[in-house]
Amino acid sequence: MTEGRIIVISGLPGAGKTTTARLLAETLPRAAHVEADEMHKLIRSGGVWPEERDMSEEAARQLRLRLHNACLLGRSFAEAGFDATIDDIVIGDRVDDLLEEMAGHPFSLVTLLPSFETVVGRWEAIGSPYVEAWSWMDEEIRERTERFGLWLDTTSMTPEQVVAEVINRLDEAAVDEPQ
After folding, report:
1. Is 31 helix (H, G, I), strand (E, B) or coil?
2. Running DSSP on this structure, what letter comes out for residue 122?
3. CB neighbours of residue 46 within 10 Å
4. In whole angstroms, what is the distance from residue 124 CA to residue 132 CA?
5. With contact defined as beta carbons under 8 Å apart, do 105 and 86 qualify?
6. CA angle (30 as vertex; 5, 20 as ends), nearest 5
7. Which residues pair with 84 in a beta bridge?
8. Separation of alpha carbons 140 and 11, rounded Å
9. Fewest Cβ atoms nearer than 10 Å: which of 46, 77, 101, 136?
10. Burial tier of 3 (Cβ tally within 10 Å: 0-12, 13-18, 19+)
């Protein structure tokens, strides 16, 4: 049995990570979708979600734990011959965490980067209480996140178009050793 691929889909909240990862997994012949948010929701008491740039030490620890568990589960699926799509917010220093988690395991990274106005519109449409609190993430991803893998401006793309673009350009998303 051939080992499956691991494809990490990153971007801001509202960028389309979960939709893209789910549709991509449904398009591939043998694939599983690992949602990092669902890893976080497994904490039934004492869970702390990060809401601001300067999050608490406990929120940062749990955020790291969710990435660890998402990568662990993704590797498990890949070892069993399934492609695994993992969606999470991997920006700024979290890129180093992802590289540490995936050390020794080939993977692909796709970063979705629609315009910030598009993302804010999505936050407002769902009634997110974090519109102002999360605005710092746009600067973090555009100015402080190391660029490697495949970065896509998905502002005017449908989810199906995004998935088709990812499939067509998956070779560009492969992560060797970022510079």
Report:
1. strand
2. H
3. 7
4. 10
5. no
6. 70
7. 6, 32
8. 11
9. 46
10. middle
Measured torsion, CA atoms of residues 156, 164, 171, 111, in degrees rounded to the nearest 10: 40
For the packed helices 57-79 and 94-101, what is the interaxial angle rounded to 10 degrees? Answer: 40
What is the pLDDT confidence band of residue 43, given thresholds at 50, 70 and 90? confident
**pTM confidence score:** 0.92
Of the options 3.40.50.300, 3.40.50.261, 3.40.50.11190, 3.40.630.30, the CATH number for the domain spanning 6-175: 3.40.50.300
CA atoms within 13 A on the CB side of 148: 14
Distinct helix (H) and strand (E) counts, the chain: 8, 6
Q: Which two tokens stand for residue 162?
A: 């995004």
Average pLDDT, the chain: 91
Query: Domain limits of the chain?
Result: 6-175
Structural tokens at position 10: 């990153």
Place of tokens 């669902």: 38
Per the document, the length of the chain is 179
- Picking from 91, 80, 42, the residue whose alpha carbon sits closest to that of residue 62 is 42
